[in-house]
Amino acid sequence: MSSDKEAVREFWDRAACGEELYLASRDLEGYRRQRAKRYELEPYILEFADFGAWKGKDVLEIGVGLGADHQGFAEAGARLTGVDLTERAVENTLRRFELLGLKSDLRAADAEVLPFAANTFDLVYSWGVLHHTPDTPRAIEEVRRVLRAGGSARIMVYHKHSMVGFMLWIRYALLTGRVFTSLDEIYARHLESPGTKAYTVAEARRLFAKFASCEIRTVLTHGDLLESESGQRHRGALLSLARAIWPRRLVRALCPAAGLFMLIAATK
Ligand SMILES: C[S@@+](CC[C@H](N)C(=O)[O-])C[C@H]1O[C@@H](n2cnc3c(N)ncnc32)[C@H](O)[C@@H]1O
User: Fold this and answer.
1) Would you tell me which of 65, 121, 140, 259 could form a disulfide with 219, CB atoms 3.0–4.6 Å apart?
2) Cα-to-centroid distance, 218 and ligand 1 (Å)
3) pTM of this prediction exceeds 0.70
4) 83 alpha carbon to ligand 1 midpoint, in Å?
5) Distance CA 47, CA 44 (A)
6) C-alpha dihedral (29, 30, 35, 41), degrees to nearest 10
7) CA 129, CA 140: separation in Å to the nearest integer?
8) Is residue 107 within a helix (H) or strand (E), and if so which, with residue range?
9) pLDDT at 233 (0 to 100)
10) What are the structural domains of the chain?
């Protein structure tokens, strides 16, 4: 594994996404609460994933994390496969599934080299994952390869011109006198795992150019609106102050497209 990817793996192996903030216990109640909190904060996932539509279909999720969305596909009756770069995520999802009596073929694997034959899945779903892997275009090519003709990809990656990016830039560029720091560098160094990327809508269209069709929309998130704890890396007095004075209504009214999440629905 390259040192870049090893750094990503190490980051997510210290705590899976949302584990520190929202998983109080690794039992049924703990996973239930984490899932409820997830959809309270990110309700648009339910419409985007559209779990019920995949009953009886072959579904692959890349980057299962704590397994909340994976549970949605399983409960809807999909024939399910899930991968994640870290054993920690796979173990969490296996534990959730064991407690709930659900089934999936789960294993540690790399999005850039998926261990599946071409034309295997009706849906490849991935929420907040492919911008973390060092070679995102290669991972997207893998998504296309394992999809059947006419199959769907539903992928969330980060959107560059977001309020989260703007706030991080103020904190790590403006307030430290390094005003020439690019947004790319800010996301890579200060958001989550090292090397995290964010894309403009035009860049995302290019990433999915080989798909037959591609629809993209951005979403203002709880992070852009400072409505929640802001991820496992960000705490402190400055953030508490920003949370108290952040003009949420104005942001919603004037910058509805400046959300961190970019939701991409593409067809092979
Ligand atoms: C922000 S978390 C998202 C997890 C989950 N989808 C969610 O929404 O909670 C990012 C996940 O991507 C996984 N990941 C990063 N690079 C990966 C790769 N190359 N292949 C598979 N998973 C990867 C990490 O291990 C981590 O679990």
Assistant:
1) 259
2) 20
3) yes
4) 9
5) 5
6) 120
7) 11
8) strand 105-108
9) 60
10) 3-162+198-223+262-267 (3.40.50.150)
Distance 84 CA to ligand 1 centre (A): 6
How do 261-267 and 213-219 pair as beta strands?
A: antiparallel
DSSP H stretches of helix in the chain: 3-14, 19-22, 28-41, 44-49, 68-76, 87-100, 136-146, 163-172, 183-190, 201-207, 237-245, 248-254
Band of the pLDDT at 230, cuts 50, 70, 90?
low
Digit-coded pLDDT (tens) for 114-167: 999 999 999 999 999 999 999 999 999 999 999 999 999 999 999 999 999 999
d(CA 233, CA 221): 17
Q: How many CB atoms lie within 10 A of CB 237?
A: 7
Average confidence (pLDDT) over 214-236: 82
- In testing the pocket of ligand 1, which one of 85, 112, 126, 197 has its CB within 8 Å of the most ligand atoms? 85
- Predicted local confidence at residue 19, as pLDDT: 86
Residue 60: phi, psi to the nearest 5? Answer: -115, 130
Q: C-alpha distances in angstroms, 257 versus 121, 200, 209, 227, 260?
A: 31, 11, 22, 17, 9
How far is ligand 1, taken at its centre, from the CA of residue 101, in Å? 23
Ligand 1 pocket, residues with Cβ under 6 angstroms? 8, 12, 16-18, 62-63, 65-66, 83-86, 89, 110-112, 127-129, 132-133
Atom index in ligand 1 nearest the CA of residue 129 equals 12
Return the residue matching tokens 């309270």. Answer: 40
The answer to whether 162 touches 187, Cβ cutoff 8 Å, is no
Compute the average pLDDT of residues 244-255.
Answer: 89
Distance 254 CA to ligand 1 centre (A): 32
